[in-house]
Amino acid sequence: MAGGAGTRFWPFSRQNFPKQFHDILGTGSTLIQQTAERFEGICPQENIYVVTSREYYDITREQLPFLTDDQILLEPGRRNTAPCIAYACFKIAKINPNANVVVAPADHIILKPEEFRRRLTLALDYSQNADVLVTLGITPTRPDTGYGYIQFDDSDDQEVKKVKTFTEKPNLEIAKMFISSGDYVWNGGIFIWSMPSILKALDNYLPEIADAFREAQPHFFTEGEKEALDIAYPRCRSISIDNGVMEKAENVYVVLCDIGWSDLGTWKSLHENSEKDEVNNVVSCYSMLYNVEDSILKMPKDKLVVVKDLKGYIIAEHDRVLMICPKEDEQLVKEFVAKAEEFGKHYI
Amino acid sequence: MAGGAGTRFWPFSRQNFPKQFHDILGTGSTLIQQTAERFEGICPQENIYVVTSREYYDITREQLPFLTDDQILLEPGRRNTAPCIAYACFKIAKINPNANVVVAPADHIILKPEEFRRRLTLALDYSQNADVLVTLGITPTRPDTGYGYIQFDDSDDQEVKKVKTFTEKPNLEIAKMFISSGDYVWNGGIFIWSMPSILKALDNYLPEIADAFREAQPHFFTEGEKEALDIAYPRCRSISIDNGVMEKAENVYVVLCDIGWSDLGTWKSLHENSEKDEVNNVVSCYSMLYNVEDSILKMPKDKLVVVKDLKGYIIAEHDRVLMICPKEDEQLVKEFVAKAEEFGKHYI
Fold first, then answer.
1. Hey, is the C-beta of B301 within 8 angstroms of any chain A C-beta?
2. Distance from C-alpha of A105 to C-alpha of A3, rounded to nearest angstrom
3. Using the beta-carbon criterion (under 8 Å), do A315 and B307 form an inter-chain contact?
4. Which of A307, A339, A343 has the CB atom closest to B324's CB atom?
5. What span, in angstroms and rounded, lies between the C-alpha atoms of A142 and A144?
6. What pLDDT is attached to residue A103?
7. From CA A137, how far away is CA A131, in angstroms rounded?
8. Does residue A223 sit at the B interface (CB-CB below 8 Å)?
9. Phi, psi dihedral angles at B236 (to 5 degrees)
10. Helix (H) or strand (E) holding B259
11. In this structure, are residues B169 and B290 in contact, taking their beta carbons and an 8 Å threshold?
């Protein structure tokens, strides 16, 4: 899933160049490239399908040159994850109605890919012959209020746990209770299921979406695919797979993982997941820092940035936009983007 | 005089593009262009001579296209203002030994050009038939410790005053005394004299510099000029015309001026001379400012800059360098430049 155009990393992440296409940690590969690499040994490249927005076709081809046009699924609009997943599943089902499917966001990081592959293999083994929907549950390391939580049944010693409830972003008090109870994990947004299981679940819980794509399915892998999507998408409401399916289904299981996962959803999480200097700065460019601490400099690489007397700031620049903002005010970035649009579409 | 490569406005002013070639106030013309325009009606364009460094030949031609190559005097090295003025005077003397000469820095601003021309005309009238060295004295508006001061004899009502002393940058206490005494003005670095007077003064007070250029003079306006300068310049010590001549000569006069002058030598003076918003910010680009006051944003014009919670800062960017520094620390900019050179010549 690579269709998002989140604004939280603006000005770095932009409408025409969102987060998943950035080398946001400065590691040498972009988040979508890292996501693809992560499946080496699990899924051959010819079986990787990327669902994204039509406007990101060129960047996708460029960053993942092994993809054929058949493997790049272009959504005509954004309808959250359920239609995105339905499209991909109905398309893949056309050529392999018994495929084992892994759904993964293209903009997360996983610092322990070996462990990820081990846990994923377990999930695939569990799901391939059973009518179950499996998700990866991330062992929480703090009472983060930005994530969804999954409560699991810990009554037996099975490696794959039955899910009891999904909870969206809780408040801090509840998050702390979740952590101390020991039977909650973070919802990593990574799903594993067999094709029959997910199609059945879509039919059960999101029948109008399932119908829309089932009717479009005969046109997939043909020249009529684009036109069929232009009919199917407007029929779908915008809904996440979590809300639409996972929270309602009875056959949901979770594999607990400690895989160094982050959805890199905030500047704070970027700061946490990046290498820091001795005074806690994350720096992506040439820099001369005087009395600067606990800050993020996310700048073009060849830029020299001189800063004096700033603590806890985000200094971020990309393509004609510079933002200098206290880290603790990062929730304002959404407002900034809305306002920035007044200066011109190319600033957002 | 347009040879300077001052570092005080770094990163805006750069080794390969110093201050005089910038439209530093955002008025639509650069400082050297404004300086040339300022002489309209006083000096025909064919009589304007620009002394600069060889590396600025191209920018000078581009910004002042009316100049012929004979009018662009290229110094092989920097030796402060005395050799610069000696070179220009000996060159002009070759074709007009009785020229009336005005010497002016190319990087100052004068907000009242009409008044400037009136006072300059007075100085020219006074100097053209007398053996005097005239300077423009700027009516001081505050006890600035960054300027030189000229004490004048106020004992008669003459419009052109006899100079008693020159004082370089005084401390604040002394500067305050100067202002309250009423017989001190700022040294604007603009000089007016007849050719015989300046050549005589150079012979008297800087004979080795006068000799160096007198020996080079036969080659001026010929193909041998460059070679002659390569011999003359190393013979000259680095010395200002103020130290070398004006402070020593007995025949120095000053014309008091209230012409809206600034040497734009500091970010503070740039701030003072620029249009400000209602909370005292000077902004040269698209901006969204939240709780930002008393700051300077000197950025590329098409840039959108979002800033939150900064007061009294300089935010300046030019060609791959961004500086974010409290205004009160602007004296550190020299250190920044020295350090920046370690990252590469193109950053300074």
1. no
2. 9
3. no
4. A307
5. 6
6. 98
7. 19
8. no
9. -95, 135
10. none
11. no
Query: Beta strand B286-293 with B304-311: parallel, antiparallel or unpaired?
Result: parallel
Q: Are residues B326 and A309, on separate chains, in Cβ contact within 8 Å?
A: yes
- Under 8 Å between Cβ of B323 and A297: no
Q: Residue B81: which residues within 8 A CB-CB, separation 6 or more?
A: B1, B189, B240, B241, B242
Long-range contacts of B174-179 (CB under 8 A, 24+ apart): B175/B143, B175/B144, B175/B145, B175/B149, B176/B143, B178/B140, B178/B143, B178/B149, B178/B151, B179/B140, B179/B142, B179/B143
Summarize the confidence of residues B4-9 as an average pLDDT: 82
Give the mutation candidate from B15, B304, B327, B329 for the A interface (greatest A CB count, under 10 A). B304
Task: Say if B12 is an interface residue toward chain A (CB within 8 Å).
Answer: no
Task: Pull the structure tokens for residue A222.
Answer: 């043909």
Buried/exposed code over A5-16 (b: 16+ C-beta within 10 A; e: otherwise): bbbbbbbbbbee
Report helix, strand or coil for A254.
Answer: strand
A5: which DSSP letter? -
- Sign of the CA dihedral B221, B227, B228, B230? positive
Q: Whose CA is closest to B172, among B201, B149, B154?
A: B149
Q: Tell me how many degrees the CA angle A135-A141-A142 measures, rounded to the nearest 5.
A: 115
Q: Please judge whether A324 and B305 are an interchain contact, meaning their C-beta atoms are less than 8 angstroms apart.
A: yes
The answer to whether B171 touches B219, Cβ cutoff 8 Å, is no
Measured in whole angstroms, the distance separating CA A327 from the mean position of its chain's CA atoms is 22
**Other C-beta atoms lying within 10 Å of the C-beta of residue A347:** 24
Which contacts of A227-236 are long-range, i.e. CB under 8 A and separated by 24 or more positions?
Answer: A229/A74, A229/A75, A229/A76, A229/A87, A230/A76, A232/A87, A233/A75, A233/A76, A233/A77, A233/A79, A233/A83, A234/A77, A235/A208, A235/A209, A235/A211, A236/A79, A236/A82, A236/A83, A236/A86, A236/A208, A236/A209, A236/A212
A289 inside 8 A of chain B by CB: no
* Nearest residue to B14 via CA among A299, B314, B72, B22: B22
Lowest mean pLDDT among A57-66, A216-225, A328-337: A328-337
**What's the CA angle centered on B173, arms B170 and B179, to 5 degrees?**
80
Is A290 near chain B, with CB under 8 Å?
yes
Query: Helix, strand, or coil here: A315?
Result: strand
Strands A296-298 and A313-318: parallel
| pLDDT tens digits for range A330-344 | 889 989 999 999 999
B306 vs A302, A307, A336: nearest CB: A336
pLDDT tens, position by position, B29-78 = 999 999 999 999 999 999 999 999 999 999 999 999 999 999 999 999 99
What is the tens place of the pLDDT at every residue in A287-316?
999 999 999 999 988 899 999 999 999 999
The size of the A-B interface in CB pairs under 8 A is 90
Q: Which of B2, B206, B207, B187 is nearest to B88 (CA)?
A: B2
Q: Are A288 and B339 in contact (CB < 8 Å)?
A: yes
Whether chain B has a CB inside 8 Å of the CB on A306: the answer is: yes
Tokens 């990866």 belong to which residue?
Answer: A136
Q: In what order do the strands lie in the sheet with B313-318?
A: A286-293, A304-311, B321-326, B313-318, B296-298, B282-283
Report whether pLDDT(A6) > 80: no
Facing residue for B336 by CB, picked from A288, A303, A325: A288
